[in-house]
Amino acid sequence: MYIRYDVADRIATITLDRPEAANAQNRALLDELDEAWRRAAEDEDVAVIVLRAEGKHFSAGHDLKDRSGPIPDKITLELIYQNESRRYLEYSLRWRNIPKPSIAAVQGRCIAGGLLLCWPCDLIVAAEDALFSDPVVMMGIGGVEYHGHTWELGPRKAKEILFTGRPVTADEAAQVGMVNAVVPRAELDEHVRALATRIAAMPPFGLRQAKRAVNQTLDVQGFYAAIQSVFDVHQTGHGNALSVSGYPILAQFDEMKAGIE
Question: Which regions span the lipid bilayer (predicted)?
Answer without folding.
Answer: none
